[in-house]
Amino acid sequence: MCEPAYHIPVLLDESVNGLNIKPSGIYVDVTFGGGGHSKEILSRLNGKGRLFSFDQDADAEKNIEASEGFTFVRSNFRYLKNWMRYYGVEKIDGLLADLGVSSHHFDDESRGFSFRFDAPLDMRMNKRAGKTAADVVNEYDEERLADIFFLYGEMKNSRKIASMLVRARQNKPIQTTLDLITAVRGQQTPTNTMAESREKKDMAKLFQALRIEVNHEMDALKEMLLSATELLKPGGRLSVITYHSLEDRMVKNVMKTGNAEGKRVQDFYGKVETPYRLVNNKVIVASADEQQKNPRSRSAKLRIAEKL
């Protein structure tokens, strides 16, 4: 099903066990990637079971192997409901999502996802369409850039970073990851924007914010979660792995209240109305052994809910 070097699946057993798989059921893996989670789901299905796996990245298609009952959908998972309708699927028994960026993307020097390499500032999951990170950095005004860095990177120095980028691009366009890093480092002064002691963390936040904006990740996640809520059968399971607080907050809100904003609607007796029952009240994290073997798992949080 996949090449091991592409991506090591995180919380594999825990997330697939959380689906409580019925051998003849219909399941969706909205983040195919290297195919690790999909392969495990398929191993638990019989000849009548079906799995639909989504990925918008052309690189992921290299990991596909023909398998009975398996359908690959090259698309953003925000179009989940449309594709299920296209395939004549009205309801599903479970959905798994391993959010964030795969190790493959961070290790690909040409895609601009990592500040470890000097590469074109791209960051698009789907290389066929949309604005690149370079477009965002060079075209957005200062206020909009600051908002992105604050909302998606949770950077306290977002306005200072935005100001430095606008100044830097007046001299020359910011086209590569090195251009970006150089621009935000600025001049070495006692009040440097990114102190050396926290530079890696700040760079990670900056790159995360740009990646989320380029790929419209939060909008796509919201649409997918709401579609999943409509598609899941009573007793169906939603198993989601998150890597940063923005993703986790939205997933938690949908599972607890049925909406992305976390607005609590109460019935006549004061009970919160929700389409889900939480399977795990506390998030599931990777074991110490997995964290040692797979650094990506260190920030992973798994939430599982059952449709009522």
Structure in words:
Helices cover about 40% and strands about 15% of the residues. The chain has twelve helices and seven strands. It has helices spanning about 10-15, 35-45, 80-85, 105, 135-140, 140-155, 160-170, 175-185, 200-215, 215-230, 245-255, 290-295; strands at about 25-30, 50-55, 70-75, 90-100, 230-240, 275-280, 300-305.
Structural class: alpha/beta
Number of strands: 7
Task: Note the main sheet.
Answer: 7 strands, mixed
Strand order of the largest sheet: 3-2-1-4-5-7-6
Distance between the termini: 33 Å
Q: Total number of helical segments?
A: 12
Q: Summarize the amount of helix as a percent range.
A: 25-40%
User: Rg to the nearest angstrom?
Assistant: 20 Å
In oligomeric terms, what are we looking at? single chain
Average pLDDT across residues?
A: 89
Instruction: Give the CA-based shape.
Output: globular
Order of helical and strand elements: HEHEEHEHHHHHHHEHEHE
The share of residues in extended strands comes to 5-15%
Low-confidence stretches: 1-5, 187-191
